[in-house]
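Moderator note: this is an archived Q&A kept for reference. The question asked for a predicted structure of one protein chain; the sequence and the answer are reproduced below.
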Amino acid sequence: MEQWGGAGHSKEIANRISKNGLLIGIDRDEEAICVAKERLKEFNNVKFVHDNHDNIKLILENLSISGVDGILLDLGVSSYQLDERNRGFSYMGEAELDMRMDRTQDLTAKEVINSYSQEELAKIIFEYGEEKFSRSIARKIAEHRKEKQIETTEELVSIIEEVVPRKAKEGHPAKRTFQAIRIEVNNEIKPLYQTIIDSIDSLKSGGRLCVLTFHSLEDRAVKNAFNDCIGKCICPPGLPYCVCGAKSKGKIITRKPLLPTEEEMEENSRSKSAKLRIFEKK
């Protein structure tokens, strides 16, 4: 029995796998893989892969695995990455503008902030951050970088705070912009729909895909992919038989996403935005 999980997850996943099973941990962050290796060092049924889950089909092909029993996709930035201030993911404190999950890639947040056009920045901040002040923020960034390159998270936060009013109920003024830049740097949204399709295709019959999302853009892509995979007929009513060729890949187990309990949210405030959706392969 082959199993699938993220490299940063706890011993519980490995403990649930039979002694004849295999847990494959995939992460684009080499530091996260190192942490997972140390945490799971007592297990000999774990294989770690430094890669992107978007490449799931190729990864399994390279491992000579035709299908897996379960897949867990834990999307977005990790607590480990947020807490490592030198990575530049957090808008708290000062660090170089980086935000790369995979530090071997070339594109950084600094390059996005300093080389993208004002129009491109406004589009990214609006679409990926759902920030209503996106145009004003992009304009202010463009004004500042004429004087000098924007290099640190503190500089970027200061620029955003010149534009976005601080309201306690809406969180930190820089939260949405930082999310948007991070998504752009790591290309988190564009491939996600296809990644969900590929993951379902990689399951054995009866296997399940579990996806944890942490914001609406991720959840929307997952929900759309799940809905398309159930193979709902889109033929006009009245036709004697289906001509659209809809084929079902399986069923959605969670018609509504599972949400964290009150107890979990009290213990871990970052779980408040989490949603879990599950699909079972036919």
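Archived answer notes: Confidence is low (pLDDT under 50) at residues 1-5.
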